[in-house]
Amino acid sequence: MASPRVLILRAPGTNCDMETEVAFARAGAQPTRLHVNRLLENEKLAKDYQILCFPGGFSYGDDIAAGRILAVQIKAHLSGMLEDFRNSDKLVLGICNGFQIMMRLGIFFDSQQSEPPATLTLNHQGRFEDRWIHLKTAGDKCVFLKGIDQVHLPMAHAEGRFAVRYNQALEQLEQQGQLVLRYCRPDGTGWNESLEFPHNPNGATANVAGICDTTGRIFGLMPHPERFLDATNHPAWTRKEVLPEHGEGLKVFLNAVSYFA
Question: Which fold has domain 5-258?
Answer without folding.
Answer: Rossmann fold (3.40.50)
